[in-house]
Here is the input.
Amino acid sequence: MSSPWLTSSPTSADRAAFADAQPTAYWPQTLGAREPHPPLERVLDCDLLIVGGGFTGLWAALYAKERAPDREIVVLEATRCGAGASSRNGGFLNYSLTHGIENGRVRFPDEIGTIERLAMANFDVLCADLERYGIDAELEATGELDVAVAAHQVPDLEEAARVLEEFGQRAELLDRDALQAEVHSPLYLAGLWKRSGAAIVNPAKLADGLREAALRAGVRIHEHSAVRRLVKSGQGVHAITDAGVVRADRALLATSAYDPLIPAVRRYVAPVYDYALMTEPLSEEQLESVGWKRRQGIGDSGNQFHYYRLSADNRILWGGYDAVYRYGGPVGPELDDDEATFARLSHNFFTNFPQLEGVRFTHRWGGAIDTCSRFSVFFGRAIGGRAVYALGYTGLGVGASRFGARTGLDLLDGHATEATQLQFVRRRPVPFPPEPLRSAVIQLTRNRLAAADRSGSRGLWLRTLDRFGLGFDS
Ligand SMILES: Cc1cc2nc3c(=O)[nH]c(=O)nc-3n(C[C@H](O)[C@H](O)[C@H](O)COP(=O)(O)OP(=O)(O)OC[C@H]3O[C@@H](n4cnc5c(N)ncnc54)[C@H](O)[C@@H]3O)c2cc1C
Here is the structure.
């Protein structure tokens, strides 16, 4: 049996289910109201400037202040802290730094053992730090379920379980009956329950908790203060916003899928849009009809995959499948809504959970992912070594952004660590070609990935990309 997702098309009922949904991310609505931090409206001197107030920027600000409390640290955020990918994501907190072991093993065969060890340490410290800073991010150590919805995906789960165990993770294979006993869907054929290194969080609460912790530590934050230009000046850098200037010794750039400010970096990152729907809270009976007592985050197998999980108040977040790259890589609020993608998502939701017919979606939104060709965070220096950037998480940055922040800071401070010695940190990804080739290559690759999901085998184009260490993912 090939992938079940394309056997039928969205119906008017699928469209009606999200017609009244608010076109905005659900997670920020779980936060209390707060005043924005004032925009930068003067010339400000500091030791360290951080551009971008998402997970990467906020972890970096917090750790930098902790490392040297006398250091003046300023965060400049274009909109509101956390308003980028950090509050729009699925909240899957996975330990992997390399978008899964398999990807890491192929790209860094000599270092994967070390990377895996550092990845697990990063996950453990992140969880411990939530306690330490008093951040209630609704962390639930549920593990993660990967589910097969096509016969050809079952052996892949078996292989994935073997590899996870080889690297010390706890992984349990579930046959059809065992999986159905966990979560009920007519599509499920088999599952892999990753019992270690995986949890779910409320990402907006994580981002906001980091913002508050950074503030308490003495970090200065300016919101609605987009950096328009970053220039070298003497021994430092100047960051120019619409109404002010920050003069800093050093800068950490944590701009994710947005313009990286350093032109040479643009070729490494392609902003890819990922979309999600959130249901209303399920009733007791609806929840009973799905099972899901142990609340694992779930991802279905395949190149085009859905990710879904329960929220604290028992809504289902259902996202993924389409990964949309648009010509030129635009990023902006006008792209947060995509009718055709929501219709497909809604249709696939009811295909997966037909017992939930009649459930309404209350929120629909999209967000830009900083895709790079190796699917994992990369680092680099710019402006004569005065600035370091940490980008490219490619859809798995909730956990990895802590590592990105920490390592970016180490590079900036000149601290040699086990991580900073790795090729994984020192090497940059293969760049994407410029437009119009970039769009053409990405569309062709998406097309071939969809075909591979239907047939169960990677065709010539994908195998060629694999050989050159290139790829496209979300
Ligand atoms: C829909 C979606 C679902 C996802 N699901 C998951 C998931 O379940 N698990 C997972 O691990 N990962 C997931 N991700 C990825 C994850 O959210 C990101 O990897 C992570 O949030 C990256 O954090 P960041 O701080 O680097 O980027 P962001 O949170 O995007 O922060 C970058 C910030 O920089 C600011 N900025 C940009 N340019 C400037 C400038 N010039 N001046 C000032 N500020 C600027 C932006 O406004 C933004 O706030 C998902 C992403 C999306 C979009």
The chain is about 30% helix and 20% strand.
